Structures are given as structure tokens and as C-alpha cells.
From TrEMBL, chains A, B:
Source taxonomy: Bacteria, Bacillati, Actinomycetota, Actinomycetes, Pseudonocardiales
One Pfam family it belongs to: HTH_IclR
GO BP annotations listed: negative regulation of DNA-templated transcription
Provenance organism: Prauserella sediminis
Gene Ontology molecular function, alphabetical: DNA binding; DNA-binding transcription factor activity
Protein name per the record: DNA-binding IclR family transcriptional regulator
Annotated ranges, domain HTH iclR-type: 10-71
Length: 255, 255
DNA sequence: GAGTGGACTTTCACTCAGTGAAAGGTGTGG
DNA sequence: CCACACCTTTCACTGAGTGAAAGTCCACTC
């Protein structure tokens, strides 16, 4: 190759992935030029890759000629065992909580320093919430996030506390010392709550899901289960109980 | 390349996709050799591609060293607008039906000659059903399938009737003339039912979801909504009403 | 504990698939 | 009409990709 790409170790595979990863929640429909910019690749290169990806049905073109993720990649994604096995086990329990509380129910895991939402059940009447399956939020501003952070490895937790934390609302707790104390409470009490920390007018409760330990010993927290409601009112105990029952059920059902 | 691959037009991109498409519902964890066989590529080639895909976090290796679809591909798949936009609009309505009926609820589209399940809500108590989000079944043996087939283009419908049809149970209707009459009834009545056609002991009702036409004219059926229950009992009317309310709601909410 | 079969990994010389600057279209707006 | 932005195609060069073959690892057998 004459000029070749700036970054070393550039293979076709890495370029293909760069193109695919250029899509995100806010950018689901992209043109060649924008994809090239986002993937940091020359336009003609991206253009050719896109043609081959479309030929392979990995991508499709929408009515406006822009490129979108296609059905077959969706299919492939649905085969990721890490996400879908947990999601599948949890699904009936989420339904139960949703039926019992009519609140928005979330299933989430920790991905690095973010909450990754695996599933969401929301009623029509419930609070509008940003999260959807596949979306990410910071660990410190949501109920499920606090649970996951509280049960993360100590090293990661301490690192997180020293990082710059986003403040979606004025109620978001970003003071390291205050957050550290909150997390200790979450571990001790077994649940986390937030009020107006991510979205004004939205409160949340969340509990950890632990893989049921065969013998004794430390239980590994694999995910978190949470609900979002307009206000916690007097309901806290009832909602918490529903969550904990479900979390235990999921933990027992895990392989 | 000295020998090169048998099939012409073999690019790296097509090879990568062949490797990814080698995964399916029954084969989520695969070794190099099996992947190579399924993708019809030489083992060393697949091996190198796999390494690069793992480096790019598209794939992961499970505890047994086998390759599985990774988190980032799941992420990417969740961005497919065709599947997820419909799924997202429909989600609260599925919750409503599920809460009202406690039955297993399905959202599905037609993909060629198959039903593609986009979402499923199942209670713990409900009939065990094979379908899950991302899985496919033949069009003629399920409620949602009959709805989608009934509203498919006439040409495709006729072609389908001449094809060999699988018979999961003895009650599956595969006789072309009988099925054609059933589909006419489905179009006229606006819903489809099955009893024991896919799974013994499972019945289903399904209705079409049509994009709400702005003016008058033909409404385009984009998906189907169905539930699966142990037996229809006297409940048929109530269940059907719940479904139809939801289907209209989704149709109105579509962009 | 040597032997055997199977799957996984690495090597390496050859060469053609991939590359990207440049040029050619296409469409929109001033 | 020109200017600008985006999409698409061309083409000569060359190193990234290729896959047969050889090497490694592991489990299971006799």
C-alpha cells in the first residue's frame, strides 16, 4: 500500500470493525463521509467496505441511501451468550415485577465504568427514562449503577471515585467521599436508591443479582435489577420486596 | 494467493461475515475447526480472522477456549433500526397484554419465508415455547406466522404453498389448499389461531400490526402480535380484544 | 508412560486483494 | 451560473492476506 493508514496494525478486519463501531445510539443512519470521519479511514476505503457489507447483508441502506445496521447483524448480536443468556433467564422475573409494580423495570450489567442495560420493560404510563436495551449510563447516577459499582472490585471502585463524574442533574452525587459512604450502605443494606439523580422526577430502587453459590462463600454479583418510578412514596418496602424476590429467583436459575 | 478459496469473489469482508454467520441458535460456542467447516474456509484463515475479531472485541472466548459472539457485536446489533425501532414502540403494549393475560406474548416480522421473533414476554407459569427473540420458525405453523403469510405479497404466498412444509406436530396444516383457505379466513376475520400446530398443548392467537395509514387506502402489515396459551378455553374473545387494542396502539405509534 | 488421534496454533514464501490519491458524478443552494 | 458538499469510480503500486505444511498441546487408550 502506498500511503496506508496512520495507525499501525491496520488490517481489513480492524477496518471493518471500525466502520461497524462507528454506529451508535445517536448515529444509527450514516452516510459514507460521516462514517469515514467517525472510523478515521479514507472515504473510498469505507465506501468499498460498505458495499461489501451490504452485499453480505450485514448492513442495509435506508430510503435516504444512508447505511444502517442490517437484520443479519442483529441476528448475530442476539447470539451473544453473555448478554442473552442472562436476559433470557431474567425475562419472566422482569415480567412479574412489571406486572406487580407497573413500574419501568431494568436489567443491567457493569461494562467497565458504565452501566449496560440488557433489558427494559416500561409501561406506557411510567416516567420517561433514557435507558433502553443496549444503552449505557455512568455508574454513579442510577440505582442499578450504584449497585454494580458497590459490588465491583475494590480497585475499580476506588479508581472510579477519582475519575471525573458527569452530573446529569443537580442532585447527582459526585463527591467521592459521599459516594463512597453511599456505596458502603448499598453493600450493607443490599439495595440502592436514587432520587432525581439521572432524571428530575424519577426515583429508582435497585438490588444485586448474585449467582446462587453452590456451597458457602462469597456470592458473585453478576447483574443488577432495578425499577424507576415517579416517586418512592410509602411504596419503598413493597417495591424492594418484589425486586429481591425476583433477584433471588434469577440467581437460582443461573447456569 | 496461491490456491485461494473455491468460491469466487472471496474478499476478506465476505470471509469475516461467513465466520460470523457460522454462529446460530444451536451453535453459540464454536471451536476453530468447527467454524472453519461451517464457514467453508481453511482452518488457518479462520484462525487468524478469529484472532483479529477477538482483538477487536467482536468475539470473546469462553472458559473452554471456544469462540462466542462478544458484547460489542451485541451492541452493534441493537442498533439495527428495522428491528429495534418496532420493538421499542411495541414494548409497552406487549407489557400491557402480558399483564392483562399472563400469556406468552410475541412480536414477530416476516423474514423471507420465516417468522422472525423480535421480542417475547413469557411468564414463568406459561407453556414452554421454542421461540425467543432472534429465533425463526416456519410461517405456516404458528399464529403470528399465519398472519404474516396471509398478508404477504400474493406471489410469495403462492410460492410458499408449493414449498415443502415442515410438520412439527400431527396437527400442523401443510395441505396447500386447506392452508390457502385458512389464510383467506385470516385476512377476512383479521386474526389467526392455531391449536397444537407447533407444540402439542399450545394454542395461539395472533393479529396483524399495520402502520396507521395517514389517508385512506391499503394498510401495510409490518408485523404480527400473538400470544400462546395452554388452551383457548372460553377466553378467546377476551384475549383477542386485548391483542387488537394493542395492535392498533402500536400501529398508531409507528413513525 | 509411550502411543494415538484430534483440535488448536504458528510459520512462511508467494502474489493478488486491498489501498487511497485523484478524478469524475450528482445534487443542492445562493 | 458557479460553489460547495457528498457520493462514487478509477487505477497503478505493493504489503497484507493466504493456506499448505509443520509444530504444539491435550485427552484418552492400551
Amino acid at each position: 500500500m502506498s500511503g496506508n493508514v496512520s495507525s499501525p496494525g491496520a488490517t481489513v478486519v480492524s477496518r471493518v470493525l471500525a466502520v461497524l463501531y462507528a454506529f451508535d445510539n445517536g448515529h444509527r443512519r450514516l452516510g459514507v463521509t460521516e462514517l469515514a470521519r467517525r472510523a478515521d479511514l479514507p472515504v473510498p476505503t469505507v465506501h468499498r467496505l460498505l458495499r461489501e457489507l451490504v452485499a453480505g447483508e450485514a448492513l442495509t441502506r435506508d430510503s435516504g441511501g444512508r447505511y444502517v445496521i442490517g437484520r443479519r447483524l442483529w441476528d448475530v448480536g442476539m447470539l451473544a451468550p453473555e448478554q442473552t443468556e442472562l436476559q433470557q433467564v431474567a425475562s419472566p422475573f422482569l415480567s412479574d415485577i412489571h406486572a406487580a409494580t407497573r413500574a419501568t423495570v431494568h436489567l443491567a450489567v457493569r461494562d467497565g465504568t458504565e452501566v449496560l442495560y440488557l433489558d427494559r420493560l416500561s409501561g406506557r404510563a411510567s416516567v420517561p427514562v433514557v435507558s433502553r436495551a443496549g444503552s449505557r449510563l455512568p455508574l454513579h447516577a442510577t440505582g442499578v449503577g450504584k449497585v454494580l459499582l458497590a459490588h465491583a472490585p475494590a480497585q475499580l471502585r476506588e479508581d472510579y471515585l477519582t475519575m471525573e463524574m458527569r452530573r446529569p442533574t443537580v442532585h447527582t452525587v459526585t463527591h467521592p467521599e459521599r459516594l463512597r459512604r453511599q456505596l458502603a450502605v448499598v453493600r450493607r443494606e443490599g439495595y440502592a436508591t436514587t432520587e432525581d439523580e439521572m432524571t428530575l422526577g424519577a426515583c429508582s430502587i435497585a438490588v444485586p443479582i448474585a449467582r446462587a453459590a453452590s456451597g458457602s462463600g462469597e456470592q458473585e454479583v453478576v447483574a443488577a435489577l432495578g425499577i424507576v418510578v415517579p416517586t418512592l412514596k410509602r411504596e419503598r418496602t413493597r417495591l424492594l420486596t418484589a425486586l429481591q424476590v425476583a433477584a433471588r429467583g434469577i440467581g437460582r436459575s443461573l447456569p
